[in-house]
Structure formats: structure tokens, C-alpha cells
């Protein structure tokens, strides 16, 4: 198995696991159980996505495409001003 990607957080990890699974790539998350100890451990590098060696390049390509994706134009409502108001 190869570690192909380090997600920023558990949400990104779960989204990528789902995306890879939908493309037929079996991936495993490592380090998810360590998130409760963040105060004691280094902040980065805890999470990792692992895939079988023969699927590593395909999975890296899928993740690169996912990260490069842009929203489709026209998905915003007509009242969207371009500024997020909270």
C-alpha cells in the first residue's frame, strides 16, 4: 500500500474516500483515531489516504482532478452578490 494524500481534516478525508470508492478505488484512512490527541501531537501529517500499489497513480490523478475542479457557472442564485454575509 502507498500513502497517496494527506487530507487537511476528517471531512476532506471522508469526501475523498467516497469519491475514490465511487471510481472503484479501494482506499483506507490512517490516523483518524489520532485526531482526539491533537493537543499532544503535531498538527499536520496525522491523516493519510492509503491505496494498493497498482491503484496509486490512478487515485492520485483522481484526487488532483478533484482538487482542481471549479464550480460550474450559473450555480449561484440570482441574488448572489459575490460576498458572503453571515
Task: Briefly characterize the structure.
The chain has 2 helices and 3 strands.
Notes on the structure:
The chain has 86 residues and is α+β, with helices and mostly antiparallel strands. The chain has one domain: Alpha-Beta Plaits (2-Layer Sandwich). It contains 2 helices and 3 strands. Strands 1-3-2 form a 3-stranded antiparallel β-sheet, covered by helices on one side. The longest helix is centred in the first third of the chain and has 13 residues. The termini are far apart. The mean pLDDT is 82.
Question: What topology does this entry show?
Answer:
Elements: E1 2-5, H1 10-22, E2 27-30, E3 48-51, H2 56-68
Antiparallel strand pairs: 1-3, 2-3
InterPro entries: DUF2007
Protein name: DUF2007 domain-containing protein
Pfam families: DUF2007 (PF09413)
State the CATH class: Alpha Beta
Strand order of the largest sheet: 1-3-2
- Kindly report the name of the CATH homologous superfamily: Hypothetical protein rpa1041
- The helix/strand order is EHEEH
Helix-and-strand structural type: alpha+beta
Give the termini separation.
Answer: 43 Å
Largest sheet: 3 strands, antiparallel
**Overall 3D geometry?**
elongated
Domain DUF2007: 1-65
InterPro entries: DUF2007
Protein name: DUF2007 domain-containing protein
Pfam family, one: DUF2007
Amino acid at each position: 500500500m502507498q500513502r497517496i494524500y494527506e487530507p487537511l481534516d476528517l471531512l476532506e478525508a471522508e469526501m475523498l474516500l467516497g469519491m475514490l470508492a465511487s471510481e472503484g478505488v479501494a482506499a483506507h484512512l490512517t490516523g483518524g483515531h489520532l485526531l482526539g490527541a491533537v493537543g499532544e501531537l503535531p498538527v499536520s501529517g496525522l491523516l493519510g489516504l492509503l491505496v494498493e500499489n497498482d491503484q496509486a497513480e490512478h487515485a492520485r490523478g483522481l484526487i488532483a482532478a478533484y482538487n482542481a475542479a471549479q464550480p460550474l457557472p450559473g450555480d449561484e442564485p440570482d441574488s448572489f452578490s459575490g460576498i458572503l454575509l453571515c
